[in-house]
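[step 3/7] inverse_fold.run input=structure_tokens len=420
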């Protein structure tokens, strides 16, 4: 039997999260978004209060001090948090991206040593961070050195387009962060970029190659690293276009020593599984952002009088609103199905990737259309439409980009027989 009804508990979770978003997040979002210094945009005071509701414990099993919620429960909460502000929601997505591979793929010993400290954090401020992205490819230009196309022209020739084939993924060696075994420890060196919660995290899940002579697919591993580990430091704090209430930075590893027992078992495959399931969270966040924009556009269309009528009665506007609602609801259904799949099926699936791709594209389109419905007022900073449009733009980029998910996750699974 298919049952789309939320349980009483889920409705209560949604109510509590929505009230928190309305009363605690919305009132501060606009002002923090406008802070010029990205350090001032992070709402550090907010998290102890949000975590008192269990937001940073949600998916941790009760046996390790967590709330033991399901992925579906958490998708419901996250949609509401993102309705309040998507940067706050991203803070939790970054947290769960780091914890999901540990919860799903870590050994019992690792879970017992690492997870209870989150519930035990005295000021309830504990957040985790995943350190995967880097500007790697050894010897290549790093984007931070790239100062616009006029400063550098690599001079491709016409023939390059005939001879330049993609290196098969099974042979790619692009990871520059290395974790080299030394006795009972691994020594980590490398710089990770764009790390959500980088400057405020209590623990880091660092992705590195344990053997640079081997392709990444065979040598990638994940390490649990505590904040304050000697050699770990915070680099540049990023000044982002949107999602300004989340904090993003470089994390630098210089001879950081990690005990061998803090390497997650299962290598790249286990890690990939944990991260694939986490696509659901980015989908849920995107739905919340899109819904915020839809709600505002609907409210405005009912009161704005122009062209001889309230604008909702202009067919072009009315159709746009109906399409926005259909898109948000469809995205939510896919997100909830992917959460259900994460909760009930112990093997990787493409539904979470589909949910992330679809919901993030919906967030971009719906915020864009909502701004359109506000006309010139939507473009002004008095209203949140321009903020939401900036916020939405990154959702198809972060985590895995939508192009990567389509090309490397969804298409191969479909071609190899995954049904739809
Ligand atoms: C706000 C924000 C928060 C983030 N938080 C984190 C975090 O907490 N932890 C973390 O590790 N990272 C984080 N990231 C990084 C994010 O995951 C990456 O930016 C993203 O994976 C893309 O990588 P890239 O920026 O290196 O782009 P590139 O990989 O250089 O991609 C450039 C372009 O090439 C395309 N492309 C690249 N490879 C392929 C391929 N194989 N097939 C098809 N197209 C391809 C991409 O789709 C894109 O259009 C964050 C980024 C942002 C903006």
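[step 3/7] decode complete -> sequence:
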């Amino acid at each position: 039997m298919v049952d789309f009804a939320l349980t009483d508990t889920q409705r209560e979770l949604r109510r509590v999260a929505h009230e928190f978003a309305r009363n605690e997040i919305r009132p501060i979002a606009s002002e923090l978004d406008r802070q010029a210094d990205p350090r001032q945009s992070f709402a550090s005071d907010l998290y102890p209060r949000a975590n008192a509701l269990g937001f940073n414990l949600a998916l941790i099993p009760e046996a390790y001090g967590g709330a033991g919620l399901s992925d579906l429960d958490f998708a419901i909460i996250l949609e509401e948090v993102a309705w309040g502000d998507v940067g706050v929601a991203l803070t939790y997505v970054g947290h769960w991206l780091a914890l999901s591979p540990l919860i799903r793929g870590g050994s019992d010993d690792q879970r017992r040593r690492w997870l209870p400290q989150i519930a035990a954090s005295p000021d309830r401020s504990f957040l985790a961070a995943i350190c995967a992205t880097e500007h790697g490819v050894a010897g290549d230009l790093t984007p931070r050195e790239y100062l616009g196309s006029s400063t550098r022209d690599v001079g491709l020739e016409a023939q390059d387009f005939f001879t330049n084939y993609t290196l098969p993924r099974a042979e790619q060696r692009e990871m520059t962060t290395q974790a080299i075994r030394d006795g009972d420890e691994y020594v980590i060196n490398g710089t990770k970029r764009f790390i959500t919660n980088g400057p405020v995290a209590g623990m880091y899940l660092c992705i590195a190659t344990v053997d640079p002579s081997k392709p990444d697919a065979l040598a990638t591993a994940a390490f649990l690293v505590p904040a304050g580990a000697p050699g770990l430091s915070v680099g540049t704090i990023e000044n982002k276009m949107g999602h300004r209430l989340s904090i993003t930075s470089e994390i630098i590893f210089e001879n950081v020593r990690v005990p061998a027992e803090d390497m997650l078992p299962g290598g790249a495959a286990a890690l990939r599984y944990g991260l694939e399931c986490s696509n659901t969270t980015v989908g849920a966040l995107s739905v919340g952002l899109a819904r915020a924009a839809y709600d505002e556009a609907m409210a405005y269309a009912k009161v704005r009088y122009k062209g001889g009528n309230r604008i909702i009665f202009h067919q072009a506007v009315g159709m746009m609103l109906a399409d926005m609602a259909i898109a948000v609801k469809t995205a939510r259904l896919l997100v909830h199905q992917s959460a259900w799949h994460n909760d009930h099926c112990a093997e990787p699936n493409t539904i979470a990737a589909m949910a992330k791709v679809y919901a993030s594209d919906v967030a971009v389109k719906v915020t864009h259309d909502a701004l359109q419905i506000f006309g010139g007022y939507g473009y002004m900073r008095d209203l949140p439409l321009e903020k939401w449009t900036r916020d939405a733009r990154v959702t198809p980029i972060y985590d895995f980009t939508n192009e990567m998910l389509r090309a490397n996750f969804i298409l191969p699974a479909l071609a190899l027989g995954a049904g739809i």
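[step 4/7] annotate
The chain is about 50% helix and 15% strand.
Residues 221 and 309 are 61 Å apart (CA to CA).
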